[in-house]
Amino acid sequence: MQVGEFCNREVIIIGGDESVKAAAELMRRHHVGDVVLVEEREGRRIPVGIITDRDLVLEVMVPGLDPEALAVKDIVTSALSSVRVDDSLFDALEMMRAKAVRRLPVVDADGALAGILAVDDVMALLTEMLGHLSAVVERQRSREASQRP
């Protein structure tokens, strides 16, 4: 299973010079917990950072900073981790665990933004898969019970 099969291809993006308030407004409008900071390079959108709702709270609200005066690029605090579309889903989950992140931008072979992988989306997928497995077990039980005298 490759990351590209499961990632969300509808990524909300923002430029680094946009205000933190603009980032928060995008999150609210699109009902998401993050926006990906991108730079245009040779016609491609290259992810260079990610801003989460948690970042807004910890980096802006708690210290009492003005979200309208602060640029998105000013609150990106660490190097961006990303995965490629052809990476294994299990390797991506291991990276998320090791780096303690809930979201990873997904890039294509040229490094351009292709999607985002979020723990919430993976949990929904796994829940669906477990439901299917449970249904298989139940059908097997029913079939065995109907075959007994």
UniProtKB/TrEMBL annotation:
Stretches assigned to the CBS domain: 7-68, 76-134
GO MF annotations, alphabetized: kinase activity
InterPro entries: CBS_dom, CBS_dom_sf, Diverse_CBS-Domain
Pfam families, alphabetized: CBS (PF00571)
Protein's UniProt keywords contain Cytoplasm: no
Keywords on record: CBS domain, Kinase, Transferase
Superkingdom, taxonomy of origin: Bacteria
Keyword Kinase: yes
Alphabetical list of CDD domains matching this protein: CBS_pair_bact_arch
PANTHER family: CBS DOMAIN-CONTAINING PROTEIN (PTHR43080:SF2), CBS DOMAIN-CONTAINING PROTEIN CBSX3, MITOCHONDRIAL (PTHR43080)
Record's protein name: Histidine kinase
Organism of derivation: Thioalkalivibrio denitrificans
